[in-house]
Amino acid sequence: MTVALMPPQELALEDQFADLAARHVAPRSAQAYEAEVLDRLAWRRMAADGLWRIGVPVELGGTGGTWRDLATAIAGIARGSDDLGFTLSLIAHAGLVRALVEHGTAWHHRHILPPLMRGAIGATALTEPHGGSDVARTRTVARRADDGWYLTGTKDHITNAPVADRALVLGRIPDLGRRDITLFLVNLRSPGVRRGSPEELLGLRTSPTGALHLDDVFLPEEAVLGRPGEGLATLYDIISFDRALYGLVAAAYLEPRLDAVLRFSREREAFGAPILDHQYVQGRITDIRITIETARAVSLAGIDALVARDPEASLRCSVAKLIGSEGLVEAAENLMRLQGHTGYMRGDVSRDLQDALGTLIAGGTSEMQRKNILNQMLATRRQA
User: Is the pTM higher than 0.70?
Assistant: First the structure.
């Protein structure tokens, strides 16, 4: 694989984690998919090999790498794991790790970050049954206690919720008035936390998803991430990184599948020639390559903009999510069509299409990405 956008050290990092995933995730991927469970052995192995320390400063127990380095490692896992669901669970966790580093206090760095680097599982709980992706309509409410908060509400369709140890939960503090949206860090082993049953999904079955019910869950004063009432501004920075990761993961996941379908197209014959000689086949194959290159480029640009605190970082990350998920679905459909009836049979190719469809919803729908892109465009024009 030759990628001009990535320097040699990043390529080496991606290859390192692709190899780890090929050895420790891929062999159990089909079994985990059938059982509809997250491969916790593989999760712990990735943590033991330093995945979650990559983007964390040395003084906080990390290796001092960049967030782009972490993104590159996750892309490597997508390429080698043969398990898109497992990779999306990694994305959900990565957002929480970055949130703690970028927006956390010394208390967060001391009490919450270390377990998440060692293999505890994180989640970000935003969506609610009545509001969908419109996070500003959250009904999860925190009320003051003498030495902290009591948090009550329900979150729905949360990646990792059935298995997570910690969650970043979006709520509001009505006593603050109109600007009341706040982020809370919740220990999901606390009294008052109840998990819904894992959802039965069409695809992405190795990424457990479900509801969280919070009934007067006590949180210490320090559990707030960022300033009370300023949760939306902090949240948009957090979810932008997740969105960019979707595009990068889509590109990496498609790499080995493109190689496989190229081999197939050279070996399979139709009308007296390899199907690769036919223009309609060439068109589908080149469309997959275009998706890979485009998704990778816009995702890396989004991550770079986010790190540089570019005012248009959120827009670029939404573009990455949109191109990555939409392109992944189109590519998965092309892979199925190229392999004809065997592609439609239950197996790896049809699973890829089922999983790809889930990325149109997970991490914010395509419609929400377009809405964010437009809002960012209009905000930029107003500032000009």
Answer: yes
Residuewise pLDDT in 10s, the chain (384 residues): 445 567 788 889 999 999 999 999 999 999 999 999 999 999 999 999 999 999 999 999 999 999 999 999 999 999 999 999 999 999 999 999 999 999 999 999 999 999 999 999 999 999 998 766 666 678 999 999 889 999 999 999 999 999 999 999 999 999 898 889 999 999 999 999 999 999 999 999 999 999 999 999 999 999 999 999 999 889 989 999 999 999 999 999 999 999 999 999 999 988 888 999 999 999 999 999 999 999 999 999 999 999 999 999 999 999 999 999 999 999 999 999 999 988 999 999 999 999 999 999 998 899 999 999 998 898 877 765
Range(s) within the chain of domains with CATH label 1.10.540.10: 8-120
Write out the CATH class of domain 8-120: mainly alpha
Give the C-alpha separation, 203 to 346, whole Å: 12
- Superfamily designation of domain 232-383: Butyryl-CoA Dehydrogenase, subunit A, domain 3 (1.20.140.10)
Q: For residue 249, what are its two tokens?
A: 């993961």
Q: Which fold has domain 123-229?
A: Butyryl-CoA Dehydrogenase, subunit A; domain 2 (2.40.110)
